[in-house]
Specification:
Helix content is 43%, strand content 17%. The N and C termini lie close together (11 Å). With 324 residues, the chain is of the alpha/beta class. Strands 1, 2, 3, 4, 5, 6, 7, 8 and 9 form a nine-stranded mixed sheet that branches. α3 crosses α15 and α6 packs across α11.
Amino acid sequence: MQRRAFLQLTAGLIASSVLTGHAPRLLAKSRVEQALDEKSFHASRRFLKTSFGRIAYVERGSGEAALFLHGFPLNSFQWRGALDRLSPYRRCIAADFLGLGYTEVAEGQSVTPDAQVAMLITLLDSLGIASVDLVGSDSGGAVAQLFVTRHPERVRSLLLTNCDTEHESPPAAMLPVIALSHEGKFVDQWLAPWLADKQLARSPQGIGGMCFANPADPTDEAIDCYFKPLVSSPRRKALVHAYAMALEHNPLQDIGPALRRCKVPTRIVWGVDDTIFSLAGAEYLDKTLGNSLGVRKVANAKLFYPEERPDVIAEEAKKLWAVV
């Protein structure tokens, strides 16, 4: 019934947009808030003290909560456009993972995907949030799959973009990153040069060419926001390397049966020009998840398209949230 309702809603919104000449839109709870640039994003960041460390997160909106999980080596700034568009509909929370972004990790704390799930549960409990609409990208999508299969009662809906899957975790493109991380060299050989030379970062050899469709992306402010904290000290570099190495031994191995048992309504929205994760990953998720509402294939979109195309995320999230 949920799949049928989702398809009917999608058809209705498309028809409405054709008849009225306007893009489909659900009734907002409040006015759309102003876009978050880097300065305002930094100013809005909060920290929650936990046994895992001081967890950095940004929160916008009110009501039922939505939790956004970012990719590697990014942080919650990835979701700024989605938060702008979706905060009228949800209490939107985007946290920085252990080892990435502005989260301050406790001494001796693991940064594996398992630890990320435990940290997120603690974050939600501390914020008094019983359940969320979960949105995950890249390695954040892997964490989302672990989260929803271990804590299905905490998830109302799941929206996945290009991400790890059971048969593609880690993807081949991550293997050089993992190898350099074992040597303690990834941050200095990749991230530090990108931070110092933003044109290099946007080149075909940089994160821009690898993960973004628009040659103007990522912006200077995004590069600063993502990479400055990661190169700031030897300990921060070590945590980045630990995050990458934790992905070496497939964290999603044998998750298939749990995904099949999962009844959480799930929508998969996949950039088809991604060179990191194959389209077969989207097809696997659609076939395997117990309550998949189908796949939307996004043209001219690479791995980090949610940063470039937040309207797509907002459109799909609102349709999904309308049927749960």
